[in-house]
Design brief:
Helix content of chain A: 40-55%
Mean pLDDT of chain A: 89
Largest sheet of chain A: 6 strands, parallel
Number of strands of chain A: 12
Largest interface: A-B, 101 and 100 residues
Radius of gyration of chain A: 26 Å
Low-confidence stretches of chain A: 351-368
Structural class of chain A: alpha/beta
Oligomer: homodimer
Shape of chain A: elongated
DNA sequence: AGCTAGCATTTCATCGTCGAAATGGGCCAG
DNA sequence: CTGGCCCATTTCGACGATGAAATGCTAGCT
C-alpha cells in the first residue's frame, strides 16, 4: 500500500480496518440501509480509531446535492440585510442547509454572474436581492439561465419584478412609503424632507419607488412637491443619513419632518437632528423604513414601516425548498408580496419617550 | 447517445461540440495551459451555445479545494457578530473565498461537531468563536482534530485559549473591562451596576473575564464589591439589557452608572434608563463594549470599548490564508491579542449630546 | 531530407462517495 | 431434505473535473 498519511482517511480504509467494504461503511453512516449490529459496531469503532470524516465534496458530486444554499445581498454592513441574513440562516437551519453569503456590493457584474451561474458556486440554490440588475438586463441574465439545463433554482427578493419566470418575494414599497408619509402629514407636519433617494437617478430601485409613495401622499394631501427637500445618500447608512440630514436642515430650517428610506438613515438623521440642538419629535419628526431591532430601542424609539423582513426571509427559503423538492419542483413561478404596517413610536409622537409594547424578548443566550 | 437533457452540460459535451477533448475545454477555462486562439474561440462558442457551467463540486473533489471557508458564530442577531461576519466576508473576498456562515446558537454539540469535523462541511477552513466549548472539552475535541489526517485548519476567536496547538485571535477582555470601569470611576461614579454576566455561572466566558476587570477596577479604587449590582442577561441583546437594567434601577435607585458587557446590552440599558424618566449621563452613565456602528449614533452616543472587531476579522482570515498556503502551512500555532481602546462619547460625558469625530464615512452604495 | 525543439492537445488515472443491482448465507415452509 | 425468500453485504460503475505525462504536430536548423 502506498503511503497515504498526508491524505484524508477514506471509507475504503475504514472498511479495511473493520473487515468490510467501503460500501458497508457508507451504509452504516447513512443509516438508509440495514446493517447487522456487530458490523455497525465494528465500522463505528474503525471510524473512531482512524479519525475518519466524511468528505462532503465527494458526496456532493455523487448525489448532486451539497446541502448549501447561497444568499446574495448587497452588503452585510446594513442592519436590514444582516437581520435578513440572520432570518434566512435560521430558517435554512430547519432544512439542514448551510448558507453561503455573498456580498455583491454595488457591482452589477457580480449579480449577473450569480444570476447566470457563471460564478462557480457550490450550492443547491440561490436567494438574491439584486441591487443593480433590473428588468432590462435581468431578463437577459435569466434567459441564459432558463436555456441552461438543470440550473439551481433562484428566488429573487426586492422591490421590482425582474423576470416573470422566476419566484419573487416582493415588498410593497410605494404604498408603504405613502402610509409613512401620510402619518407625518396626519401629525401636522408640512415641510417633510426625504433622506435617501436621488431624484436624478433614473434607476428604478428602492429609492425611486419609495419616493413615489411619498409624492402620492403629498399630492393627496394637497401639499406641494419640493424637490429641494429630497436629499440623496450615497449609501443608506447612519453616517450618510446624518450627513444628508445636516445639509438639509442647514439649507431648510423650516423642515419639521423627515421620511427616511431605511432605518439606518433614520437613526443617522436623528443623530444629526440632536447634534444641531433640535428635538425629536417636537422640532423634527422622523420616520424610518424596515423596523430593524435598533429602531425599537433608539431614543426616541423610531416610528417606522415594518416591512416584514423575517417573514420575507422565511418565505424565500420555503420557496426554494419547494423548488428543491423533486416531487414538486415544476410548479409555475410564484410572486409573494409581503405585508407591511406602520409601527408608531416616539420619533413621531408628542413625547420623546414612549413605552412601546413591541419590545422583543427571549431567544438563545450567546454572548459577544 | 443517451438523453442527458435533464442533467447538466459537461466539459466532454462542450468538447464534442467544439471538436476537442474535455481536457482542452478545461485548459481553456482555467487559462493555466496555453491553447491556440482558434481552439479557444471554438471552445468558448460551444460553452456559450450549450450554456455550460463549471461544476464547482467536481472541481472541489479533484483539487481538494472548495474556495469556501466556514465562519461559525453563536448568533447573527447581534450587532457585534454581524459586523464581525461582514468584516470576515469582505476580507475573504480579497482571497477569492466565499464564506459559509453557521450559527451555533448556544449549542455545545454544534460547536463540538464543527471543531472535530464531525459535521460534514464543504469548506477549506474554519473560523469559529466558541461560546460553550471551553478548554476542558475543547482540548478533547481538538485532540481528535490533531489525530485525524489532513483536517482543514482552524482559527479560534474569543476570550480564552482553548487549545495551545491552534491559532487564536483573542480579545484582552479583563484589562479592557477594567479600563471601562476606571473611566466610570474617574467621572465620579460610585454605585456602578453591571449588566450581562451571571456571577453564579461557573463557565469562564466573556462574562466572567469582563466581570473580573470590573472587580479589579473597584478594588484598585477602594470601592466595595457589591454582587447585588450585577445583573445577568439571558442573552446579551437590547431587550434583555433593557429588562435587566429596569430591574436593577428598581431595586437600587442609587445606581449612577452601568458597565454593560456589550453594546447591544448598553443600548438596551439606555432605553430603560430613559423610559424611567432618567437622563444619560446626568443620572446614569453608561459604558458598552465592542464599539458597534450603532454606538456612534445613539442618543447620547455611547462610550464603549473598541475591541478591534474588524481587525480581529481580518487577522483571522489572514491566519487561515497562511495555513491554507501549502508553502507555509507548517508554522507553529500563533496567538494574536487584539488591541483595545476606550472611546469616550456622550453617555459618560457631562453633556448629553457630543460631537464625536469618529463618524465613519464613505463605502459602497447599496440600498435596503 | 532528416532531426530536434517546442508547443498544443490528448491519454490515463484519480479524487471519495453512493445508486442500483447482483451475490451469498441463513431460515422457514413444504 | 430441499426450494424459495429475505436480509446483509458486495460488485460495478458513474458523478465531472483536473494533474502529470505522453503524444502529435509544426517549424526551424543543418
Amino acid at each position: 500500500m502506498t503511503d497515504r498519511s498526508d491524505r484524508p482517511v477514506t471509507m475504503a480504509e475504514v472498511g479495511a480496518a473493520a473487515g468490510v467494504t467501503d460500501r458497508t461503511v457508507s451504509n452504516v453512516l447513512s443509516g438508509k440501509v440495514p446493517v447487522r449490529p456487530e458490523t455497525r459496531a465494528a465500522v463505528l469503532r474503525a471510524v473512531d480509531e482512524l479519525g475518519y470524516r466524511l468528505n462532503a465534496t465527494a458526496r456532493g458530486l455523487r448525489t448532486g446535492r451539497t446541502g448549501t444554499i447561497t444568499l446574495a445581498l448587497p452588503d452585510m454592513g446594513y442592519d436590514y440585510f444582516s437581520q435578513l441574513a440572520h432570518a434566512v440562516m435560521t430558517e435554512a437551519d430547519h432544512f439542514g442547509w448551510a448558507v453561503t453569503i455573498v456580498q455583491t456590493g454595488a457591482r452589477p457584474e457580480r449579480e449577473q454572474a450569480l444570476l447566470t451561474g457563471t460564478d462557480p458556486q457550490i450550492s443547491d440554490g440561490l436567494i438574491i436581492q439584486p441591487y443593480a440588475v433590473g428588468p432590462e438586463n435581468g431578463h437577459r441574465a435569466l434567459r441564459q439561465h432558463d436555456q441552461a439545463r438543470h440550473r439551481p433554482p433562484i428566488v429573487l427578493l426586492g422591490d421590482r419584478i425582474i423576470n416573470e419566470a422566476i419566484d419573487h418575494v416582493l415588498m410593497d414599497n410605494t404604498p408603504a412609503a405613502r402610509v409613512a408619509t401620510e402619518h407625518l402629514i396626519a401629525t401636522g407636519r408640512a415641510a417633510i424632507g426625504v433622506i435617501g433617494p436621488d431624484p436624478a437617478d433614473a434607476t428604478p430601485g428602492s429609492g425611486a419607488v419609495r419616493l413615489e409613495g411619498y409624492r402620492q401622499a403629498l399630492r393627496q394631501a394637497g401639499l406641494p412637491w419640493r424637490p429641494d427637500l429630497v436629499r440623496p445618500a450615497a449609501a443608506w447608512r447612519r453616517a450618510e443619513g446624518a450627513a444628508a440630514t445636516d445639509e438639509l436642515l442647514q439649507a431648510h430650517p423650516e423642515v419639521d419632518a423627515l421620511f427616511c428610506c431605511n432605518d439606518d438613515l433614520a437613526l443617522g438623521a436623528m443623530y444629526a437632528v440632536h447634534r444641531r440642538g433640535l428635538r425629536v419629535p417636537e422640532d423634527v419628526a422622523v420616520v424610518g423604513f424596515d423596523n430593524v431591532t435598533a429602531a425599537t430601542f433608539s431614543h426616541p424609539p423610531l416610528t417606522t414601516i415594518d416591512s416584514g423582513g423575517p417573514l420575507i426571509a422565511r418565505t424565500a427559503v420555503k420557496l426554494l425548498a419547494e423548488r428543491l423538492d423533486p416531487t414538486s419542483s415544476a410548479a409555475p413561478p410564484r410572486k409573494v408580496i409581503a405585508d407591511f404596517h406602520l409601527v408608531q413610536r416616539g420619533s413621531t409622537a408628542g413625547t420623546a419617550v414612549s413605552t412601546p409594547d413591541d419590545v422583543p424578548r427571549g431567544g438563545p443566550a450567546p454572548r459577544a
